[in-house]
Amino acid sequence: MANGPVIALDLGGSLAKMALYVPGDMNTRPAAVLVKAFQDYFVASLSFYSHIIEGYIFLFTAPISETIDVVLSFISDHHLPRSRCIPVLCCTGGGAHKFSRRLATRTRYDNVVTPHEIDMVVQGLSFMARHGFKQQLSTVSLTSDKEVILSPFSGVLPDLILAQIGTGISFVHVSHGVGKRVDGLALGGGTFMGLARIIAGRKLGFHEAMELAAVGVPANADILIGDICSFNSDYLGLNMTKLAAALGKCQGERDDAHIADAIASLLQILCFNIAHIAALNARLAHCEHVLFAGSFIGGYQLTQRYLSEALEWYFPSAIPMFVRHDGFLGVIGALSCDPNFADAFQSSMGDINFTDDKEMQEATEFVTWK
């Protein structure tokens, strides 16, 4: 295993995701100083101890449009390759190609490798499956009040459709641990943020937009079938409370209530479209499991609800699933390109197997480093 820190990057259209591996004992001063330095610069997320690679994996994000130079300068200033026998920087995502020249010249690494992001997402999913985290992967059911109920999944997934939702969306058929991109959609997180800012008439952050969506009522902004046909009608046997035209009632009002309703409608219709395309691909691939992942989900139950509700509508027998580290599968997979971890990650390949092995669960822990 590595005898010093290792970093991997996933540079998407909106976010830079970073995985920092620190071997062994976190109580050593160099390890503590390095992790603290990362936390001072970037947003920390759910980190964990990996018994497979005998160390801690810390996860961070930063807005890529504002901080790509900060990320590269940080890596260079801290000279992370200095303790490495084979100084390799593994970077995946579209930004790995967009910023390839800067990655090669500004990070002091002798070798920068840019593995395919789809392969890395699948590899990251396989790797996380081996840890046996409780609730790492969950299936979803909805109550009569549309409340999301997450149930831990344990078992083998030989085939599934993975909807990787970031700035844009890729649909991946994962079969026996191998992923193939089968479809895409240009209505993802980038669309949500762009239209949310237009609706609000000001610059919004992602979390603020999601908070507005959570208090908004889509039906106040949408035209429902009953608005057209009368709610007492049984026209075409349709449910009169179902959506006819998203945002159809909007008249351009800019008060807080109308903005929240419109952003809630926007989130809902994007999720409905994503789930529709996922359902079509699941039918074509004869898959009953559909896994929604990517930074756009971010653990928000409202997004999970809309995706699950729509998938149930378009493909009733399909099983919607969500993964706890939804935005970090690619960067975790990128660690697999590091020669120090090749054997550990190679043994993760094959069917996606989420174990409920108690011994493995006890050997793994989530950590918060302060």
Give an overview of the whole structure.
The protein has 370 residues and is α+β, with helices and mostly antiparallel strands. It folds into two domains: 6-120 and 328-366, Nucleotidyltransferase, domain 5 (2-Layer Sandwich), CATH 3.30.420; 189-323, ATPase, nucleotide binding domain (Nucleotidyltransferase, domain 5, 2-Layer Sandwich). The protein has helices at residues 29-41, 64-78, 95-98, 100-106, 117-130, 189-200, 206-215, 218-221, 225-229, 256-285, 301-314, 329-334, 342-346, 358-362, and strands at residues 6-11, 15-23, 43-44, 47-50, 55-63, 88-92, 111-113, 137-142, 148-152, 155-157, 159-165, 169-175, 178-185, 223-224, 243-245, 289-293, 319-323, 352-354, 365-367. Strands 1, 2, 3, 4, 5, 6, 7 and 19 form an eight-stranded mixed β-sheet that branches. α6 (189-200) packs antiparallel against α10 (256-285), α7 packs across α10 (256-285) and α10 (256-285) crosses α11. The longest helix has 30 residues, at 256-285. The protein starts with 5 loop residues before the first strand and ends with a strand. This is Pantothenate kinase 4.
